[in-house]
Amino acid sequence: xxxxxxxxxxxxxxxxxxxxxxxxxxxxxxxxxxxxLRLVEPVSIxxxxxxxxFSQLQNEPQQWGQGMKGxxxxxxxxxxYTAAHNxxxxxxxxxxxxxxxxxxxxxxKFMPRMRNxxxxxxxxxxxxxxxxxxxxxxxGTFGAAFVANAWEPTGHxxxxxxxxxxxxxxxxxxxxxxxREFLPDLAxx
Length: 189
Description:
The chain is mainly α. The chain has helices spanning 2-21, 28-40, 42-58, 67-96, 110-122, 135-147, 159-187; strands at 98-99, 123-126, 131-133. It is globular and about 50 Å long.
């Protein structure tokens, strides 16, 4: 028993250091603010504009036509998807006590950092410091894909269309995580 206590005592500085490096959990208000800001952050607006532009070039969906009116519908659809995604994800963040922040490794070899970026699409950090399936991201992405069926035109509002939108949404989120991991290194070499 005394040997166990001595082992615990010797490991206490390591445990304290590990606790000190965990980020402070966000309050519900901070989580809400973070999700709302994702609707208007420059990366989100720019990627929405580019995505709407690609859809415009492909004339998808055709029912929305071309010109500014068609582009505005495509842009609005993408923003509606983003709003639905963040609203649904916020509900999961609050209910399941998950942290919506991205956690960079900041240093180390390429592959561990790449695994970190990809894994955070599917594995969430809990407020308590543990990990779990990223229900916020997965549920928010696919939930928003089905919500978007409400305004998508006929032929683009099917279950298959929603599953495709959700899958593309997860791929997009993964790419954003990779950018979050590595772009700061390029900005500040």
